[in-house]
Design goal:
Layout lengths: L1 E4 L6 E4 L6 E4 L15 E5 L14 E6 L5 E3 L16 E4 L8 E6 L13 E9 L5 E3 L1 E2 L10 E2 L12 E4 L3
Length: about 170
């Protein structure tokens, strides 16, 4: 599946090997973002006994990068401005037990339905507490002047501030 940022231009949660953090990336013309190899993710429930188990609201999940054994880590991304532990994300962690790779899944809107399905808008809250003792949300950067479009693990997920993500199926 892929995660599409729900604000501004359609951008996909993506990993780039030449940078040390996760980004949001637009799909090139003529290509669906779901076809981008760097935008493919698996949502894996932490406590599932069966990997085919339905993902539900409130589940703690891992975001696994494509077919790799790497997970999105809420505190491992870094660049010249951010240091590891500051809330910049990266899909480079191989330990699924590490607290900062676990995310609590929420629907972005109220509904009685508990199952998460394709097309849903979700929020992903980190289980990792930052230095201010806060639990952040996976949040994309939506500044058109910012070419790097980093993805953070902080911010108030109660507003639409870049923390809503649409689930789409990849082929």
């Amino acid at each position: 599946m892929s995660l599409v940022a729900n604000r501004g231009e359609k951008r996909y949660l993506s990993t780039e090997m030449d940078v040390h953090y996760t980004v949001t990336k637009a799909a090139p013309p003529g290509i669906s973002g779901a076809q981008l190899p760097t935008a493919k993710w698996q949502i894996l429930p932490v406590n599932a006994t069966d990997m085919e188990e339905i993902v539900k609201v409130g589940d703690v999940v891992l975001l696994k990068r494509g077919s790799s054994q790497k997970y999105l880590d809420a505190q491992s991304g870094r660049d010249d401005e951010y240091y590891p532990g500051d809330g910049l994300t990266s899909a480079d962690e191989s330990d699924p037990q590490k607290e900062s790779v676990k995310w609590k899944l929420e629907l972005a809107y109220d509904t009685d339905r508990k199952e998460i399905v394709e097309g849903d808008f979700v929020k992903l809250q980190t289980l990792w507490q930052n230095s201010d003792n806060e639990y952040g949300y996976l949040q994309g950067e939506f500044d058109p002047k910012e070419p790097k479009q980093r993805v953070f693990s902080f911010g108030n997920g109660r507003r639409d501030n870049g923390s809503n993500w649409k689930i789409t199926r990849t082929s």
